[in-house]
Specification:
Blueprint: H1 7-10, H2 24-29, H3 50-56, H4 61-65, H5 68-82, E1 87-88, H6 95-100, E2 104-107, E3 111-114, H7 121-125, H8 136-148, E4 154-159, H9 161-170, H10 178-186, H11 188-212, E5 216-221, H12 229-235, H13 237-245, E6 254-258, H14 265-268, E7 275-277, H15 284-291, E8 296-301, H16 310-324, E9 330-334, H17 344-356
Parallel strand pairs: 1-4, 4-5, 5-6, 6-7, 7-8, 8-9
Antiparallel strand pairs: 2-3
Helix pairs in contact: 3-5, 5-8, 8-11, 9-10, 9-11, 10-11, 11-13, 16-17
Length: 360
């Protein structure tokens, strides 16, 4: 475990916000010219790493997220191994719900499961609110990380209101989101009240991370790709916008990413993020046209291609770098998270390829 786990570190005075003028990730996110192409990976800390499996032995997912020393160590592991250009706080979409007092747990092989689904106006009114004290362990993990990371930026993380709402309404993961879509259309007032409450929760969660010292934030919308653009604009976009614009005063880069959102990229580009994440389903040059000017892009290697061998990976990495040159800024990433069975050496090769590539 890193020295961040010592009692002395936990009681240190929080330093002033770091100034990282040479960080390639921050330069690209701000559409400035970086010293090299930056790269990091969603789910870079996790089951693909043997050191992660070792340190997580005997600890539940939410327990790990809410134990500062453990969350710090897990966040640092891929930075040590790969030399990526950003760390992302080890957390989970449902952590702020758990911290607020919602009955939710992460069940192995299933995912988040909600004890009492939220499906009526009364259920929405009964939702507990989150305060900064409730996520004090997360803030402490950020403070530990800021001391450990040196010149590597730290990205804060939260799930978007729509994805949180979907888990609450469905009671867990859903293939078709039928209860969620039914509520959205049959009781739009209840739906907007739910998403408004979750936007408050998300802002509180991200603000706690910002105040503790993160250098950027990512708003992750796992299930937005299940929606039509019309429904997204009317029923989801206002709430994601409130979260992202609610952080505008921080001056930190804001990333907005969703899965299966190729047809939503134009709308997502309007939500207020500085960087729009793109999954593997659409080329980055096409995504740049859809998102429009004034935004950097992040992405978008298909994580399954990491299993195809070095020649395929090199070809695809170079293709994505070429397509990403059409964006005003480009942060290389996967088009979704690292798959559990991924060979860590394949990710190491991607980092080397990206870092050795010429700047556009």
């Amino acid at each position: 475990m890193s020295r961040a786990g010592t009692a002395d570190a936990a009681t240190d005075v929080v330093p002033a916000r770091r100034h990282l003028p040479d960080a390639p990730f921050l330069a690209a996110a701000r559409r400035e010219r970086p010293s090299r192409r930056p790269v990091w990976f969603m789910r870079q800390a996790g089951r693909s790493l043997p050191e992660y499996r070792e340190v997580r032995r005997g600890s539940g997912m939410l327990e790990a997220c809410l134990t500062p020393e453990l969350a710090c160590e897990i966040t640092l592991q891929p930075v040590r191994r790969y030399g990526v250009d950003a760390a992302i706080l080890f957390s989970d979409i449902v952590v702020p719900l758990k911290a607020a007092g919602v009955g939710v747990d992460i069940v192995a092989g299933t995912g988040p499961v909600v004890e009492r689904p939220v499906r009526t106006a009364a259920d929405v009114a009964a939702l507990p609110t989150l305060d900064a004290e409730g996520v004090a362990p997360v803030a402490e993990a950020v403070r530990l990380l800021v001391r450990e990371l040196g010149e590597t930026p730290l990205i804060g993380f939260a799930g978007a209101p729509f994805t949180l709402a979907s888990y609450l309404v469905e009671g867990g993961p859903s293939r078709n989101h039928e209860r969620t879509k039914a509520l959205m259309h049959a009781e739009p007032a209840t739906w907007h009240a739910l998403c408004s409450a979750l936007a408050d929760t998300t802002l509180t969660f991200l603000r706690a991370q910002v105040d503790a010292g993160v250098d950027a934030v990512q708003l992750f919308d796992s299930w937005a790709g299940a929606l039509s653009e019309r429904d997204y604009r009317e029923l989801v976009l206002p709430h994601s916008t409130r979260v992202l614009q609610g952080l505008a005063d921080t001056g930190l880069p804001r990333i907005h990413f969703g899965v299966g959102t190729s047809e939503l990229l134009g709308a997502m580009g309007e939500a207020g993020a500085d960087v729009v994440g793109v999954d593997w389903r659409v080329p980055l040059d096409m995504a740049a046209a859809r998102v429009g000017p004034g935004r950097a892009l992040q992405g978008n290697l298909d994580p399954a291609l990491l299993f195809a061998g070095p020649e395929v990976v090199e070809r695809e990495v170079r293709r994505i770098l070429a397509e990403g040159a059409s964006a005003e800024g480009h942060v290389f990433n996967l088009g979704h998270g690292v798959l559990p069975e991924t060979d860590p050496d394949a990710l190491a090769r991607v980092v080397d390829l990206v870092h050795s590539a010429d700047l556009p």
